[in-house]
Amino acid sequence: MTGFFPLALTLAMIFSAGSEGSSGGSPGPDSDAWGLEQADSLFLAGHPKAALELVEGMLAEDPRDYEALWRAASFAVALGVISEEDRNGGSPGDWYAKAEGFASRGMELRPDRLEARYWEVATLGRQALSAGPAEASELADRIRRGAMEILDRDPNHPGAHNALGRLYYEIMALPGMSRFLGRTFAGGEALGEASWPLAEDHLRRAVELGPDMPLYRLDLARFLVRRGDRAVAREELRRVVVEARDRPSDQAFAAEARKLLREAGG
Known about the structure:
This protein has about 270 residues and is mainly alpha-helical. It has 3 domains: about 1-130, Serine Threonine Protein Phosphatase 5, Tetratricopeptide repeat (Alpha Horseshoe), CATH 1.25.40; about 130-210; about 210-265, Methane Monooxygenase Hydroxylase, Chain G, domain 1 (Up-down Bundle). Helices cover about 75% and strands about 0% of the residues. Helix 2 runs antiparallel to helix 3 (about 50-60) and helix 4 packs antiparallel against helix 5 (about 90-110). It is globular and about 55 Å long.
């Protein structure tokens, strides 16, 4: 199963989308419930490409199937993350462009729903990691606006808190001169607003709202290590290991936590 940790990361992001955005949620009245269930099962079994092909077939028959659209966005993100490590899986940029397209269609079709908006935020986050300074600043603002919009409608959305916390963390982790130049020449709300306390607040809030999500604890632990609080970081990482359930995604996160524990002196 090539690239399983990236797949586990995206699986966690799917459940990060909140109660409406979890795989296996109730499909709409116009959706093919059996097809959606099959697509979810394929993805959970580690076959995101087959899952995407299935929902793309559904969309060919009904381009307005919202449940298929947001799933297509999530599966395309998974394939992009995997292809970052395995270039035989195609170009990450191509997969993220597909994901953004599916998310955009979903947002236009159902502006009252949050799943497509969340997957747009997730897609932009992956694109920002490899973007140049000016583009990254623009993407950061779009991530911030998207996450803020989600939190305006659902203040307890753990995935949006995690997205904002990671965004602010990534900005603050930049060298000081890079942040200064970015603020001076690229501008941007996210660059100007980011701070260590804001990053910590959102990362901790994500853990509070989603205590069973190992991804949130891993992100908080990385933040704590960066800020020098290794003792508390080790506590979070040990919880990821101890509380890992007997399913492949949890085991992948537990393996990552053990690696970070060694690096943190635990």
